[in-house]
Write a structure and sequence with these properties.
By secondary structure, the protein is an alpha/beta fold. It contains 10 helices and 13 strands. Strands 1-7-6-4-5 form a 5-stranded mixed sheet, with helices on both faces. Strands 8-13-12-11 form a 4-stranded mixed sheet, sandwiched between helices. Strands 2-3 form a two-stranded antiparallel ribbon. The termini are close together.
Length: about 350
């Protein structure tokens, strides 16, 4: 029914970040400059008196996750409600998705207090599932809407990825530091007897976990730095690509549809190699993944909310027609490929 996004006001080119952090290692600079990312919105650390970025403690990073997360989520939610002509009092269910920190109570409770949402609002916090989690959150959000026809359910993906950064000059952290950006996206869902908006109906969800690659993507404790940090294995694109065809086949099984029947593809902006692997293994054209690639270029990897930024660009084109089918695909730790089938 509606969609809203938000990003920090500050954005940086890859060259900006290399300069600010004084990074000169040719291996690291190559990662940054060959990422197919032009800019990312980030909350970088404050500067020390010598002009260098301060090393943030885990406590400071968690505070950033909370403070920036609430701000971004609130902006995205208000933008979503404005998009669909609704107000805060109409929200009956709120699902908040994040992977860049840990809060108890979570963002759902904090936003209800911060924004004055109904205290009777049902809520769910999906924490720590990574870049695939947007579809993991959309599934119960759509289910609640189906069980409560006519009432508004909202999912917010809020990722302050700069609250999960470790800067130590190693290639492990450079892969992460050169890829992720900060942002939030909110989507409103209503079950109704007759279509009340131009958005698509969610028809089906499907999951495919790859247990053999359970260690390929993770966010765990780094004893050396005394804080949490991301790790992404270099083989992730090949793992995702090798299982993408099976994941889509599982989604379409029993629907009577083939891949050639899918008009619109909204795929997570996981990185240039991930996008290429999906494109090759599914036999897609660059045009099919144009929004996935452009979101990566303009924002970097926004973790769980990336696919909603791509969906927003598709809707802005106004090319979707009644009867068109679309596939939503997100990938992340597990390793996992999540998919959803939608129809306009």
């Amino acid at each position: 029914m509606g969609l809203g996004t938000a990003n920090p006001a500050t954005s940086y080119s890859q060259e900006d970040i290399l300069r600010i952090f004084g990074i000169k290692d040719p291996r690291v600079t190559s990662l940054f400059l060959n990422s197919h990312i032009d800019r990312r919105h980030l909350h970088l650390p404050p500067l020390d008196p010598d002009g260098s970025p301060r090393v943030e403690t885990q406590g400071e990073l968690l505070l950033k996750h909370r403070t920036d997360g609430i701000e971004l989520a609130a902006q995205a939610l208000q933008s979503c409600l404005k998009d669909m002509g609704a107000d805060l009092g109409e929200v009956g269910y709120l699902c908040c998705v994040t992977s860049t920190g840990m809060l108890t109570p979570g963002f759902s409770a904090l936003l209800i207090k911060e924004l004055g949402l109904p205290v009777t609002c049902g809520r769910l916090d999906v924490v720590g599932m990574g870049c695939n989690a947007g579809l993991n959150g959309l599934n119960p959000t759509a289910a609640w809407a189906s069980s409560n026809p006519g009432r508004l359910a909202v999912m917010i993906c809020v990722e302050a990825c700069s609250a999960a950064y470790v800067f130590d000059g190693t290639l492990r952290t450079a892969v992460v530091n050169g890829l992720f950006g900060d942002g939030a996206a909110a989507v409103g869902v209503i079950a109704a007897d007759s279509p009340a908006a131009e958005g698509p109906a969610v028809l089906k969800f499907s999951s495919r976990i790859i247990p053999d690659a359970v260690e390929a993507m993770r966010y765990d404790w780094d004893e050396v730095h005394g804080k949490f940090s991301f790790f992404i294995d270099r083989d992730v694109p090949y793992v995702v690509g090798a299982h993408a065809e099976e994941a889509v086949a599982n989604l379409l099984r029993g629907t009577g549809l083939r891949r050639s029947d899918i008009t619109h593809w909204i795929v997570h902006s996981g990185g240039k190699k991930v996008i290429d692997a999906v494109k090759i293994n599914l036999g897609l054209a660059s045009y099919d993944l144009r929004h996935t690639s452009s979101v990566l270029r303009d924002y970097g990897n926004l973790s769980s909310g990336s696919f909603l930024f791509s969906y927003q660009r598709l809707m802005a084109e106004e090319v979707a027609r009644p009867g068109d089918y679309g596939v939503l695909m997100t990938m992340g730790p597990g390793s996992t490929i999540e998919t959803a089938l939608v129809q306009w």
